[in-house]
Design brief:
Helix 3 links the parallel strand 5 (95-103) and strand 6. Strands 4-3-2-5-6-7 form a six-stranded mixed sheet, with helices on both faces. The protein has a three-stranded antiparallel sheet with strand order 1-9-8, covered by helices on one side. Helix 1 (14-31) packs across helix 2. The chain has three helices and nine strands, in the order E-H-E-H-E-E-E-H-E-E-E-E. 33% of the residues are buried. The protein is of the alpha/beta class and 177 residues long. It has helices spanning 14-31, 47-55, 107-117; strands at 8-12, 37-43, 61-69, 82-85, 95-103, 123-131, 144-148, 154-155, 171-174. The chain has a single domain, classed as Rossmann fold (3-Layer(aba) Sandwich). The structure holds 1-O-pyrophosphono-5-O-phosphono-alpha-D-ribofuranose (PRP) and hypoxanthine (HPA). The site of 1-O-pyrophosphono-5-O-phosphono-alpha-D-ribofuranose has 19 residues, from strand 2, strand 3, strand 5 and helix 3. Belongs to the purine/pyrimidine phosphoribosyltransferase family.
Length: 177
């Protein structure tokens, strides 16, 4: 039995996940023709998604990482979003695409959009693999969306529970959470 099977069930399998990531990459490629794009990968959760997506984007692409944390190990947000690592360059004049694994309450993304817009980029758009609309506390625009999910705590493909399960190649659901 694999290490996760007792606690985690498959929610979106690897094949479906990769097919959708490929479609999103093609859509982004079409929409940003003629432009230079900057991915803002929101750590840690979006790391796996962002790196797969980048391979499907056929454009000149700069990759920046921005670390934020608000769940701090549990299944409920603390409501306080903290930047743990900032991007390495000024963002003024750049076309930014913020890459997230999940928009749950929306608090992280709404904080990030306000923060990034204050840096005077040419544009800011949002790409999130998952959206959990039933838990939204604030409305955030999602320009590119992978899947809409129900109110379940998901793990895998970057998403964690107490730092575990990020390395699963599929989206799983925690049994009993
Ligand atoms: O819409 P929200 O309710 O704000 O939740 C979404 C955020 O929560 C998770 O990050 P977390 O704070 O757990 O940090 P991590 O990515 O390092 O796991 C996830 O990666 C998003 O960034
Ligand atoms: O469902 C989730 N799983 C893991 N991390 C999260 N951060 C917000 N929602 C989730």
């Amino acid at each position: 039995m694999a290490f996760y099977e007792q606690d985690v069930g498959v929610h979106i399998d690897e094949k479906k996940l990769q097919a959708r990531v490929r479609e999103l990459g093609a859509q982004i490629t079409r929409d940003y023709q003629g432009k230079e794009l900057t991915f803002i990968c929101v750590l840690k959760g979006s790391a796996f998604f962002a790196m797969d997506l980048a391979r499907y984007v056929d454009l000149p692409l700069t990759i920046e990482f921005l670390g934020v944390s608000s769940y701090q190990g549990g299944t409920e947000t603390t409501g306080e979003v903290r930047i743990t690592t900032d991007v390495s360059k000024p963002m003024a004049g750049k076309h930014l695409l913020v890459i997230e694994d999940i928009i749950d309450t929306g608090l992280t993304m709404s904080f990030l959009l306000e923060n990034l817009k204050a840096r005077h980029p040419a544009s800011v758009k949002v790409c999130s693999l998952l959206e959990k609309p039933s838990r939204a506390r604030t409305q955030v625009p999602i320009d590119y969306k992978g899947f809409v999910i129900d109110d379940v705590f998901v793990v895998g493909y970057g998403l964690d529970y107490a730092e575990r399960y990020r390395n699963l190649p599929f989206i799983g659901v925690m049994k009993g959470k």
